[in-house]
Amino acid sequence: MRRLTEMGLTLQTPLYQIKGIPPRFLKRLERLKIFTVKDLLWHFPSRYEDFSEVIPIGNLEPGQQVTVEGIIRDIKLRRSFRRRFVIVEARIADDSGEIKAVWFNQPYLLNTLRPGQRANFAGKVSLGENEIYLSHPAYELISARMNADDTQISADTETRHTARLVPVYPETRGLTSKGIRFLVQPILKNAGVIPEWLPEETLEAMGLPEINAALNEVHFPTNEESALAAKKRFSFEDLFLLQLTNLRHKMKLAKEKAPPLKADIGRVKEIIGALPFELTVSQKKSLWEIIQDMGKARPMNRLLQGDVGSGKTVVAAIAALLAAESVHQSAFMAPTEILARQHFSTLKKIFAALPMEKQPEVGLLVSKEAKIFYENDLETEVSKAEFKKKAESGTVKIVVGTHALIQNDVAFKNLGLVIVDEQHRFGVAQRQALVRGKKTLPHFLSMSATPIPRTLMLTVFGDLDISIITELPSGRKPIITKIVAPANRYKAYQFIREQIKKGRQAFVICPRIEPSETKSEEPGNGKSYSQKIALWEVKSVKEEYEKLSKNVFPDLRVEMLHGQMPAFSGHKKKTLPGIKSKAEIMKDFAAGKIDILVSTSVIEVGVDVPNSTIMMIEGADRFGLAQLYQFRGRVGRGYHQSFCFLFTDSSAKTANERLKAIIEAKNGFELAEKDLKMRGPGEFIGQKQTGLPDVAMRGLQDFELIKSSREAAVKALEKDKNLKNNPLLAGKLSEFEERIHQE
Ligand code: ADP
Ligand code: MG
């Protein structure tokens, strides 16, 4: 590495161009995804070993973690015959005394450490039979360091492995932290000055170190505080960029036009008063926030969050009704046909409570059917062509359907509002596509039953305004939740039978069985991974169905629901005899014609069957907490007491601890927060969905830093809206935006 400075290192320099790094080292570095100077310098220590105390040998005490500086008096090899390993023993002396250092199975040390050399030894002071000794100390030759002309390190007192906080890196086979330190230190010194891209005011306000100082301190910190400050700076960077991205997306939307859909307060009160129930406080509050947004001449971008059954659809329905009364159409989009149908019937139920002349025309568009609800008891099937005409002419005010159908097949006369289930982003381009060439964009309301932790709301979904429904409609009883160990399975089945005999119904959710967990002669060979997963999910449902219908509950009506069944069998097209569609099964279940419904975990999230009071979850330990919470939310919607049984075959204590969190959690948000901590954000929402780099994902755990990064981003944009005075920052930002592919 002699010519480090001469070659003019930049961050982009590939490591193979640096003289002196052996090829086998490069291979190992590649395993850590380290290819360039930048990769290496951004390979941060996971922790530090504190060897900063340098103590005279005479003052050493057992248990201390220290560095001693001394002369090697002698060094020799000893064999332990009984245990068949070699021991290297050295005696080290300084003015105050002498101590033994011991290493196991490192005979090559005899070539490195020679009597008479001066060196540092860092390690733990252990207590032997009648003396203290250093066990396996790290060492660093001082004379060698001073004479070395193969690095730029001069005779100053800079050390790497001893007499300081020593970085411990993520390692790989054949590449220890020691090896990484050897590379990092000289390269760090010669990488040149890295331009600072964070605004000075931001650094100052946040109390963060400048980039070069931060890089030095993160690898070779002066003390713990400076190491922490350095790490904080790097976590901050991505959070800051993420916040800037969100804020700029918000600003971009704010520049767009939307039709102001003004609502008269008296009219809103009238509608609420006509409902068959009293809205909860947070339903009212959310509705108010939505009405405010829709009244503005720029597009609403709002997320309505609330547990399953908390009454989001009702709130959205009122918003759509108000839009209709402002002569604008709404698109109500669901991810599946079953959900679209359910939304359609919820809307019908709500609007039927209004006086006839006030009922808006609502349409349902699914793959094989189109329907129009004109008013109470007045509903007809129409052809798809007719349906589209009605949308185009603006007579049908609210169009309910699946995303794909509405986005591809329907042209609206005057679309003012888009309501979507569980899809949190609806950018400018998507809105433009729906209104084809119009000057205004529709307002957007996303509904989500996934409890998104606060940290994610402020970061990943930071461009959305948020309304939260925190309470369930009154009169709902808490769901009794039990973890069922294998020994108690039979008892649980008996209880379930009794409940069903009383007229209740039950869901059974089967876990996804990974193809790799089973034998190779099973289905799915030659298929892609996701195809296999789908097949296996079906297999697991079929097996559970067989077991329950034949062995456990032969006297009850058991059916199954899975992804291989047709979604819907319209009467225009005959389906095969004996094969039911998902829609038929759901209809039968809702009508009480099925006692037990065995389903995959992908069973439609919003399904609403109030008489169903039992949720059995097989292999509960295989699911995330937030997911389990959502399954459970499908019961407890009626007047009867509901139950949730979490079956687990795992006797692992941690699995049970995890499941207990469900029982103890007060709400989904709390659980989501826990889930996020336990599984990390990647597992929680999926790294793909966020597109966030690792560092940012880790930063998502730090709530305080998230808050301050948002404030810092707001300030930075206040001062310099288009980042004209911060070209470096602007560059970083567009790089970042490219990486996360956000609109
Ligand atoms: P979500 O969409 O959040 O899952 P829904 O809007 O579908 O919830 O409501 C679930 C059920 O509760 C529906 O049958 C709905 O009519 C009913 N509901 C909604 N709000 C209330 C309320 N405030 N009081 C009583 N029942 C309500
Ligand atoms: Mg719902």
Write a structural description:
With 743 residues, the protein is α/β, with parallel strands linked by helices. Among the domains are: 265-469, P-loop containing nucleotide triphosphate hydrolases (Rossmann fold), CATH 3.40.50.300; 480-666, P-loop containing nucleotide triphosphate hydrolases (Rossmann fold), CATH 3.40.50. 40% of the residues lie in helices and 19% in strands. It has 26 helices and 22 strands. Residues 144-156, 515-521 and 686-690 have low confidence and may be disordered. Adenosine-5'-diphosphate binds next to helix 11.
Record the SSE blueprint:
Layout: H1 23-31, H2 37-41, E1 47-50, E2 65-80, E3 85-94, E4 97-104, H3 109-112, E5 118-127, E6 132-141, H4 142-147, E7 165-168, H5 177-190, H6 200-206, H7 211-219, H8 224-255, H9 265-274, H10 281-294, E8 301-306, H11 312-325, E9 329-334, H12 337-351, E10 362-366, E11 369-375, E12 378-382, H13 384-393, E13 398-402, H14 403-409, E14 415-421, H15 428-435, E15 443-448, H16 454-458, E16 465-469, E17 480-484, H17 489-501, E18 505-509, H18 529-552, E19 558-561, H19 582-590, E20 596-599, E21 612-617, H20 625-632, E22 643-647, H21 653-664, H22 668-685, H23 687-690, H24 694-699, H25 703-719, H26 727-740
Parallel strand pairs: 4-6, 8-15, 8-16, 9-13, 9-14, 10-13, 14-15, 17-22, 18-20, 18-21, 19-20, 21-22
Antiparallel strand pairs: 1-7, 2-3, 2-5, 3-4, 5-6, 10-11, 11-12
Helix pairs in contact: 6-25, 7-8, 8-25, 8-26, 10-11, 11-12, 20-22
This protein binds adenosine-5'-diphosphate and magnesium ion.
The site of magnesium ion (MG) has 3 residues, from helix 11.
